[in-house]
Specification:
Helix content of chain B: 25-40%
Order of helices and strands of chain A: HHHHHHHHHH
CATH class of chain B: Alpha Beta
Strand content of chain A: under 5%
Number of strands of chain A: 0
CATH topology of chain B: Rossmann fold
Shape of chain B: globular
Number of strands of chain B: 10
Number of helices of chain B: 10
Distance between the termini of chain A: 56 Å
Number of domains of chain B: 1
CATH architecture of chain B: 3-Layer(aba) Sandwich
Number of domains of chain A: 1
CATH superfamily of chain A: MetI-like
CATH superfamily of chain B: P-loop containing nucleotide triphosphate hydrolases
CATH class of chain A: Mainly Alpha
Distance between the termini of chain B: 34 Å
Structural class of chain B: alpha/beta
Radius of gyration of chain B: 18 Å
CATH topology of chain A: MetI-like fold
Strand content of chain B: 15-25%
Radius of gyration of chain A: 20 Å
CATH architecture of chain A: Orthogonal Bundle
Oligomer: heterodimer
Structural class of chain A: mainly alpha
């Protein structure tokens, strides 16, 4: 039996890199898209039916496509962006494209959770829509946003494991190569254990941080 | 015509889709500079819609609103944002930002209007001192009592040195001691800062206590208006009489001496 420890460590690192990089992009894109969704919604600070419907359609269509299919669909785009369609870097592209609409919807929900009366009060103080987003929506929604990004990070771990199935590297890739193709049940179980520990740690960290920053 | 008025409302009308009756139907209102004016009415009288229209949270269907001389009904969004510094509002739910400290809450309107940082620091310190909450500057609203939160909301509303203060039910759900303190503060705001105050309330006790003049609203129309003393002591309209009878407050006879008491407190 071969020693799989180096492979496990490398795969864990690949998973962490995939999740960290794609999550960072998803947070930035999700905050932007989610803020537009929230402020253009009927209960937002600058309601616009057409803008909201356009953004909502984008978010919904992207989320309708199963992630595995999205990876295949994006292969030419991925190859164009990073020069290859295999490996960790290549897996990050569909992770960002697939994660952004989820992030946007989670951000929208967190922002719309802010008391609309509070937003109106700030409007009467002279806030522009942009000021309302930066000075009220985001700061007041911080606990909700942290919980949203915790859910997103866990979704990204799931997605990254799926990306592994098509040569994306990481723990999912290792689990399939060793556990499915070489009948190494021990590697399969170890991959699952590492994934469970990662998810538990992220959930615990997210919950603690959200609780600590909640001033209500 | 209305140059001496802090707030001048004429022919204000607001209808909501799906309802036959207008929420506001040709309302006229004058708040003289340096006075406290109360708008009284039972539930559904149109008080909240009036406040929202004056604050331009809603656009009226007809009529004119002038705040400190400028016509708020004809302003563009950008002009309105600049003009908002002339009006402070204290909402019934206060709407303080939970994520900001007391000092940062009071600083918010100044930040929104692009006030330089040093000027913000000194103005906030001055306001916190004036309202007796300087020691709470670094606390968060959730750590304060109801009365302290009320004072933070008042300090925030006055941060840009507005000419006009709108107070939505400022005394509802407060214990008697805090209510007296809030009324006293509103008096001081009028007398020492020269700010004109418009109170929207159903609380006759506070109206009788501190208002110079009152307007009685019913079904979106003004049914009576005039000096508080006269309207409350000699109501000429059935709605006013009903309001006086329904209100859980001392009789008008008891309320008038309270008015004097508050003035004495406010003018040492």
């Amino acid at each position: 039996m071969t020693n799989v420890t180096p492979a496990l460590l490398a795969a864990t690192l690949e998973t962490l890199i995939m999740v960290a990089v794609s999550l960072s992009f998803c947070v930035v894109f999700g905050l932007t898209l989610g803020a537009w969704l929230a402020i253009s919604s009927p209960q937002g600070i600058a309601p616009s039916r057409s803008v909201h419907q356009l953004l909502a359609a984008f978010a919904n269509i992207s989320r309708s496509i199963p992630f595995l299919v999205l990876i295949v669909l994006l292969l030419p785009f991925t190859r164009f962006l990073v020069g290859t369609s295999i490996g960790t870097a290549a897996a990050i592209v569909p992770l960002i494209v697939g994660g952004t609409p989820y992030a946007a919807r989670l951000v929208e929900a967190a922002l719309l959770d802010v008391d609309p009366g509070l937003i109106q009060a700030v409007v009467t103080l002279g806030a522009s829509p942009a000021q309302a987003v930066w000075k009220v929506y985001f700061p007041e929604a911080i606990p909700g946003l942290i919980r949203a990004f915790t859910v997103l990070a866990i979704t990204m771990i799931n997605f990254s494991a799926m990306a592994g199935a098509v040569g994306g590297g990481g723990l999912g890739d290792l689990a399939i190569r060793y556990g499915y193709q070489r009948f190494r049940l021990d590697v399969l179980v170890l991959c699952c254990v590492i994934l469970i520990v990662l998810v538990q740690a992220i959930q615990f960290g997210g919950n603690s941080l959200a609780r600590r920053l909640d001033r209500r | 015509m209305h140059d001496t008025s802090a707030i001048s409302v004429s022919g204000l009308t607001r209808r909501f889709a799906g309802t036959s009756a207008a929420a506001l139907d040709g309302v006229d209102l004058e708040v003289a500079t340096g006075t406290i004016h109360g708008v009284l009415g039972l539930s559904g009288a149109g008080k909240s819609t009036l406040l929202r229209c004056i604050a331009r949270l809603e656009r009226p269907d007809a009529g004119e609103i002038r705040i400190a001389g400028s016509d708020w009904t004809s302003l563009s969004d950008a002009e309105l944002r600049r003009e908002r510094g002339k009006m402070g509002i204290v909402f019934q739910q206060l709407h303080l930002l939970a994520s900001r400290t007391v000092a940062a809450n009071v600083a918010l309107p100044l930040e929104l209007h692009g006030t330089p940082r040093l000027a913000i620091v000194s103005r906030v310190a001055e306001l916190l001192e004036w309202f007796g909450i300087a020691d709470k500057a670094m606390q968060f609203p959730a750590q304060l009592s109801g009365g302290q939160r009320q004072r933070v909301a008042l300090a925030r509303a006055l941060a840009t040195a507005p000419r006009v203060l709108l107070a939505d039910e400022p005394t509802s759900a407060l214990d008697p001691e805090t209510r007296a303190s809030v009324l006293n503060t509103l008096n001081r705001i009028r007398d020492r800062l020269g700010v004109s105050v418009l109170i929207i309330t159903h609380d006759l006790r506070s109206t009788a206590g501190i208002c110079d003049s009152v307007t009685i609203l019913d079904a979106g129309r003004v049914v009576e208006t005039g000096p508080a003393f006269q309207v409350l002591r000699h109501p000429s309209n059935d709605v006013t009489r009903r309001l006086l009878a329904y209100t859980e407050s001392p009789s008008v006879k008891e309320a008038i001496p309270q008015h004097l008491h508050f003035e004495e407190v406010a003018r040492p």
